[in-house]
Specification:
single chain, 432 residues, alpha+beta, seven-stranded antiparallel sheet, six-stranded antiparallel sheet, 5 helices, 18 strands, 16% helix
Length: 432
Amino acid sequence: MRIFHISRWAGICASLGLLIGTCAFGQVKRVAHTGPRALAVITGPAAGKDFRSSRLYPITIFEHGEYHDATLYESNPEPMALEPGTVYEVQHTGEALGLFTVTTPQQLKDTWLATGSWRSQADIEAAAARKAAQSRSSRRRGGTSRSSPNVDSDRPVLRRSSPEESTQSAASDDSSSHPTSQTPAAAPVVAPPADNDPNRPTLSRGRPANASSREETPASLATVKPSSASAITASGAPAAIQPAPNLLVAVSDAAFSDLHSYKFPWTPDEQTRFTKQLRDTAAQELLKYTKSHQLDATAGDWESAEIRAFDLYYDNDAEILFSATRRAQPAAARGIKRPAKAASAPALTIYATLVVLVNSSGEMRLLMSEFTDDQHLDVAGRLQLIDAVDADGDGRGELLFRRIGQHAERYQLYRVTKDSLYKLFESLPSEM
């Protein structure tokens, strides 16, 4: 049985500045959060490695009700989001994977990034279990324990670690933390400036991830099973689970916030039914696009099709994303037969992204439909969903996308409403 934590109507009222108590569907307490709260993306680990070989890219800093570009905010000279010692919680669909502590900020061309140390959620929970066992043993002997066992005690709360600890953490990482030959060469290390401003806001700080814990084999991203994502077969039925994503969200906050999964727990029957509805809707939207751009996509079927279902408001309504590609060729002019040479010309790729809302009655509403193709990436880049994430700490989930153009990319953050997707933030473009 699912628990209804917050109603969508209450969330809409709150977004309009109305008192929740005046809404017809009851009262829902919404978390007020002023920040700072940092949002970043982190590359997934390579096969057989953990997040110590990953790179973290800052996206936004939410503070006092506004989103700021994290690559520029409070730079001194590196942005505040990448100061050594800053702790990020890596998440997948709202579930914690572990903690990433920034050790080395770098700037490659116009892009800020950082490497760091890693502590998996499995390690954190194992440490909490050991603390609990020690506490129980101490109580049996009549002693007292100085620390209470709490699995969430190591979750980031934007606090500072000493420079010495950050240096020790960087030194303790193995060679996998260095860039491989397949990645750009690292820029010179930026020395952390002295923190002389006591009023400057800080992100989550803590001791280095491996400073006081014994060495264990960290959990790899390969153990993540994103059950809310699946491929789509030609018949419209769900196929095998997709591999774990290569980009995940990471959050660092000055205040503790609740953490819960944004996965929509649909049944196999619902997944099959909603997938078919989405395919039908996508086919209609594809027809509109091909007609307006003189393309022919009648041959073949969707490729690289993926569907992800979320419950961003915890209200039993599903926000479902469909993304896929389709091969197409220039269409023949009306009444003119296309030459055989044109028919054999290289096909274009059409990129499709749709977001729909399915309410508790099973009614589907199209919220966003985005199409582009290889010839128009410089005009409208294709959208890649990163994940659902609570970007402002109010308990609701937002959708973070990467828009990939011909030569540059940028990140976009959207809030889902009952009628559309509302853009909250768009980062500065960076060269690819």
